[in-house]
Amino acid sequence: MTLIGRSRTRGVETLSLDAPERRNALSAALVADLAAALTDAGKDTGVRAVVLTHTGNTFSAGADLRDPPAPETLVDLLRQIVELPKPVLARVTGHVRAGGLGLLAACDIAVASHAATFAFTEVRIGVAPAVISLPLLPRTDPRALARYYLTGERLDTAEATRIGLLTAAADDVDEVLAPILDGLRRAAPEALAETKRLLTARVLETFDRDADALTALSARLFASAPAREGMTAFLERRDPEWVV
């Protein structure tokens, strides 16, 4: 059974993260299913753009601590979104945490409802936002990221928009997305692909330069004693031992 819902309207392929009972956490299975769906959309000449959305009240809670994808697999997924020859738009009506923010940053356009919240929670379980930094660092405000990476504080949609994590926020995300999708439907497919290459060149330079080092960092941290304590504490709904 696939963990990705698929539908299409006038050339726009909508892919929905569909594991609401796990808060759409990025498990190895979900990442594999999403990669397969993106591959199909990228090859399909009938697809003009892709909308990435979700079921349930959480876009993605980050890595599935019980069945996490390998760091290099997550790198491949993020790069696939950035390199897809079709614009990818995030449609968010729920909360986004940790690795889910990597998906958001990899998308070309991201729109969220005012009910959404965001947080880089990695430091609170003993790891770092390593792999997801590949699309995040080139696209968001570095001073703001310093604060939110280091503290794990929660952001609302106004702050997420200010720092470049979101394109826009609204009470009705579909009202905002409608004219954007109409514009994409009016654009020549080849022109869209070339324009996207212009916009993503700096992001891909970051992947080329830093992916190996950040993949190794992620693997090392997730295998560390602090991470084991942090993840155990999270699953047991208690503070980890380092909280003072």
TrEMBL record:
E.C. number: 4.2.1.17
Similarity field: Belongs to the enoyl-CoA hydratase/isomerase family.
The UniProt record lists the keyword RNA-binding: no
GO MF terms, alphabetically ordered: enoyl-CoA hydratase activity
Keyword Lyase found: yes
Gene3D superfamilies: 2-enoyl-CoA Hydratase, Chain A, domain 1 (3.90.226.10), Lyase 2-enoyl-coa Hydratase, Chain A, domain 2 (1.10.12.10)
Keywords annotated in UniProt: Lyase
Name of the protein this chain belongs to: Enoyl-CoA hydratase
Cited Pfam families: ECH_1 (PF00378)
